Amino acid sequence: MSEAERLWRRLNAKVIEAGNCMHCGACAGLNPSLVGMADTPRGPLPQLKRPLAASDEPGLALAWAVCPGRGVPFPELFDHLGAPPVSWLLGPYRAIYLGHATDERIRRKAASGGVITALLIHLLETGRVEAALVVRVGLRTPECAEAVLARSRDEILAASQSAYEVLPALHLLPEIAGSQGQLAMVALPEQAAAVRMLQAAGHPGARKIGFIAGPYVGTNMYRGAVRAFLAGHGIPPKASIRSLEWRAGDWPGRLRIELADGRIFQAPKFYYNYLTPFYLARNTLITPDFTNELADVSVGDAWLAELEAAGGGHSVVIARTETGRLALDEMRRTRLLELEEISAERAIAMHAHMIDFKKRGAFLRLERDRRRGRPVPVYGYRPAAVPMSRRMVERILAGFLWIGRRRGLLLFLPPGLLGPLFSLIRRGWKAVSKPVKRRGLSATRFVIEPNPERWNEIRQAGNAHVAES
Fold it and tell me: Based on the structure, what is the number of domains in the chain?
């Protein structure tokens, strides 16, 4: 067996078939003639496009070394970025704000406060970057999203909506490497981790990504949720869609689907969330990073009662690196952003439910998989202890997720009933589980477990790949 064959078999067994793929697309971007991303019921997965050859070894070795489906060496990456975490619940930060874009067109069109869109436009128009890697809905087909390089203000604005669909971005590494100047990137947490590992490995394309803007990511969905929503309204599977918006209208927005025949189907954000358990992407269950800890700037919805009542769209904004902090400070001085500094405790409180879902829940789910003999990602840290009451909550949640895998249930209840019912159940579940999930969260101690072998592997594989290139 050749080394290339051994590497592919290991990636396939421990990541792809094991259900640990993070769908980032790095393996395809590093091996564009060999690996493609194929749409499957389990999301976009790497697939060989041709037989393996000995010359494929350097690219596959680097793909294996930086694969976030194996886990992420967070302690080493934080040190590499010069940003040790102030809090293992939030990751590194220089400053935390509540804020929004001051341009109302940007703010109203965005998913929340328009901060990421405003940031990208500012970086582009000040010449700091020549393009931004973004996700855009409806570019080739109205209902699907894809990663593209946006090179103008209008192209960035066209990508300012959220896209609740698992899809790759780093399969575009060859295109990124071919750019003349620096790029910005909107990256999901696992994509940001892959980029940072590639940068540490010295990959020339990854090093052209000079700024990472990272949305908070709690859960995401596999493709098919939109068609399930329409099927609940009696729409046949092949009906043509004219346009799709996941966060249309005033914040927090609503799902809006317009068919080719002019009919429009809509649901408020907290109603169409009923689709999430049925199409929940596994990768979002097994990663501890909710707040996009390896980005330069992280942005999430600011879920505070007074802000929700005020409307307009508000974001929690974390400057994680000095690059991120300087960009935000400049935009605040030039009145492009309205920013109010807040404490870490306040930022944690407004997202405590999802932070717990990741920082304790993900490790409980990994522990369960490990006991079953399944390969699991390793992240370089873990909670020192999780109370029994929190473990019981996780068991109940596992039951809900088991029910959610029975998608056929969607056929028996109309969306008009499912949406309000799910919203009611969600509020009830949060009210019941909130005391347990928040109890002791802020005091959670983490055991740090550096992995120098993985870090050396990343550096060595990077050196070999650059030399081969």
Answer: 1
According to DSSP, the β-strands at 381-383 and 254-259 are unpaired
Q: What is the dihedral of CA 325, 445, 292, 438, to 10 degrees?
A: -110
CA–CA gap between residue 61 and residue 465 (Å, rounded)? 8
Q: Show the tokens assigned to 30.
A: 């590093």
Give the pair of three-digit tokens for residue 113: 């406060």
- Cα separation of 55 and 52, whole Å? 8
For residue 38, the cross-strand partners are 45
The CATH number assigned to the domain holding 23 equals 3.30.70
Poorest-pLDDT segment among 60-74, 141-155, 297-311, 367-381: 297-311
Distance CA 417, CA 310 (A): 28
Q: How many whole angstroms from its chain centre is CA 430?
A: 23
Q: Quick check: is 38 in a domain?
A: yes
Whether 63 is in a domain gets the answer yes
Domain of residue 68, residue span: 3-72
At residue 14, the pLDDT reads 97
The answer as to whether 18 is a domain residue is yes
The amino acid at 193: A
* CA-based torsion, 184, 110, 227, 165: positive or negative: positive
Say what angle helices 225-232 and 415-438 make with each other, to 10 degrees.
130
As beta bridge partners, residue 244 has 257
Q: How far apart are CA 271 and CA 417, in angstroms?
A: 9
Q: Do the Cβ atoms of 43 and 20 come closer than 8 Å?
A: no
What are the tens digits of pLDDT across the range 140-198? 888 889 999 999 999 999 998 888 999 999 999 999 999 999 999 999 999 999 999 99
Q: Answer whether residue 7 is part of any domain.
A: yes
Helix %, strand %, coil % of the chain (to 5): 45, 20, 35
* Separation in Å, CA 371 to CA 10, 67, 379, 393: 20, 23, 17, 19
Q: What pLDDT digit, counting tens, does each position of 368-410 carry?
A: 999 999 999 999 999 999 999 999 989 988 888 887 777 776 7
Cβ atoms < 10 Å from Cβ of 214: 27
The vertex-303 CA angle with 111 and 77, nearest 5°, equals: 75
Q: How confident is the model at residue 435 (pLDDT cuts 50, 70, 90)?
A: low
